[in-house]
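pls ignore typos typing on phone
iron/sulfur cluster + seq
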Amino acid sequence: MRLNAGAVCAGGGSYVNKTGHWRTFIPRVDTDKCNGCGICYTYCPDSSIEIVEKTAQIDYDYCKGCGVCAHECPREAIAMEEERK
Amino acid sequence: MTQKELFASGHRGCPGCGAAMATRMMLRATGDDVIVVSPTGCLETFTSMYGESCWEVPWFHGLFENAGAIASGVEAALKMQGRTDTKVVAIGGDGGTFDIGIGALSGMLERGHNVTYICYDNEAYMNTGVQRSSATTPYASTTTSPAGSHSMGKTRPKKNLAAIALAHDVPYVATASIAYPQDFMNKVKKSLTFQGSRFIHVHAPCPIGWGFDTALTVEVGRLAVETGLMPIWEAEYGEITKVRKIREVKPIEEYLKVQRRFRHLFASDAGKKELAALQELCNKNIEKMGLAGERKVTTDVS
Amino acid sequence: MGKKAVIEGSMAIAIAVKQARPHVISAYPITPQTHIMEFLADFVANGELKTEYLRVDSEFSAASVAQGAVAAGSRAYTASASQGLLLMTEVLYNVAGMRLPMVLTGVNRSVGTPVNIQPDHQDTVLFRDTGMIQLYVEDAQEAYDAHVQAFRIAEDRDVLLPVLVCVDGWTISHTFEPVEVEEQEKIDAFLPPYKPLYHLDPKKPYTFGSISIDKDLMEFRYLHEEAIQGAKAKIEAIAREFEKTFGRYYGGLTQSYKTEDADIVFVAMGSIIGTLKEAVDELRAQGKKVGVLKVRSYRPFPVEEIRAALANAKVACVIDRAISIGFGAGPLTIDTQAALYGPNAPQVLPFYAGLGGKDVELKHVAEMVAKAEKAAAGEAVSAEPEYVNINWNLVS
Ligand SMILES: Cc1ncc(C[n+]2csc(CCOP(=O)(O)OP(=O)(O)O)c2C)c(N)n1
Ligand code: SF4
Ligand code: SF4
Ligand SMILES: [Mg+2]
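k done
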């Protein structure tokens, strides 16, 4: 496929780069504790959390396991576990 | 409650990157009718691999030192095309803003283009490997101001760029932190309501460059504010209209202690003088800006 | 028919730019570029030109503002000279690599140190390898014509490259000459509004200035080179279309003047071409077979055209208004020699002339021809570049 003139490209192509394998720790959401406040969603630097039906849902294809969501959750509803690969 | 994501997953930022947080929040505030300009730096590098860009809005990267001028040209073109509903926002690092890009930024502010320029401040040249910038906190150890037997790290004060922006007689200047997303997003939104140039300085901790656990990015950002090191304020038409009060002021050591870049200050008694100086800096900020007292803002996030 | 008037070269350029209807003009003053920008400011002030005219903080910003405007989908223009052009260097590499069709004028002036505000080409030849198109003009009329053509060339979908129009400071920029100025409607027809291939638009979000890693950098360079090589035919075609529309032709990539039967051919760029043509007429009257090859497009470099024009010549006298210090020849000489390399090539005699505005008179041309005649007759002459009209007292 011919490259675009001037290296201009369409936005959103980054989805091909699945960063989930960067993780060493994995965030697990306790759906009983989570009330869907969205604090984790707001902070996640990798746009990997969505609030679906009042619960945080993590996209493990891209989550890098930084732990910010777990650290900031006021209800301690997210725990970081060592990832078994 | 989740809106269309404009900052796509799959970028190459480090885990826990404060710059990525700031940018995501910024895009939530601007919405999708926006053109974004960035100078060279971490943000540019980790978002814009050819064919793998994570920008779901039109985005332009020119050079390290010209984001203010590029944004000016974009804004002028939109004006001539009658596309004035589309907002123009620039977002760049402290090196690209405080240092090498200050000329182009000053020109943009002086000419009064309808642009919101946001500096994500991670306090060093991170993309090239953590070299000191004029935004680096004094006594931080960086790769060009390393601590050593004859050095206590960076010796000079942090440049007050927001005050310089204010001196351009622009309608809106604010400081913010990624630790307080709602405040930051409100400021971005508010900035867009002003005619003329707007400047926002947002503190964006960097786990790699500062040396802290990736889970602590927000915590570290919060401590910078709660110690008085990073005053959060807002000014309209040259007057400071709002400051974020600190309910319980924390000693500066709480902030410094969790970061490797300040480790040398605690290694021996030799760092006492510098620690005192940094505490004094916070005290001054608190006094000068009137930071102590009850907070008026009640909701911080969500 | 256009209207003929005696105007300053800078005014001719300002009018051409006005007639191109750019959305954005960025201006930062430097001698001898200032008149162009002042005339444009007057047009804005008196309502003749509707544009965003930005008085920027530096040439770095001037080029950047124009770049941003073109990326946003608008036609944009700027101009500079000497130190100011040098300050634009990093931006101009960026504009060319991004394939953004902006047009700028380089009002040629020497580069310091020592400080000198007189014309030579030391400033613009610096841009040789940026991937921009560079056109050199010989007088005010050509300056006017070339600016109109430059926007067409730059914005051509197969080209998409910035065009730097090089105009000798003072000799062209500040000299009054009769210039035919065309009607706006005819310019509009020749130069329709800019339609970008990609531009910054929320409806179709593109990323500009992306990163290329080792897997595709060379391929982007390939496409850039392909585009500028392809521009050769466009430059010629647009110059011919201009001729058809307006009746004037100053050459495409090159222009030959009495070269067909010439034994000795001058190769040069810019305003010195006028002096050379005059000298050629005089020398022809004396029975000498001399001619001039004007290099109008320095980049892309007209390799084929130079070979063809010099196919029957015995000696090529290449005149450089710049030095590639450390090589021992000027850039035009180096490139011409490379283009001619091979069997049956004419002998190349290099000359430095007009550096820092040093006078070049007809007698100097005659001296060059005298040397070339010796060479043509088979006598051994030095192939070292000669400093025309140098004051030996000051260097010995
Ligand atoms: C003119 C120029 N000088 C130097 C560089 C090298 N460089 C690239 S990014 C960078 C540091 C960027 O620092 P900053 O603006 O603070 O952003 P950060 O990487 O910290 O996010 C430097 C020095 C460059 N690209 N261009
Ligand atoms: S661990 Fe980090 S990257 Fe993963 S979901 Fe939480 S905040 Fe996002
Ligand atoms: S070095 Fe710091 S600013 Fe750069 S990507 Fe990593 S965390 Fe973000
Ligand atoms: Mg930085």
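Chain C touches chain A at residues 97-100, 160, 197-198, 204-210, 212, 216, 219-220, 223, 227 (CB under 8 Å). The longest strand of chain C covers residues 3-8. more later
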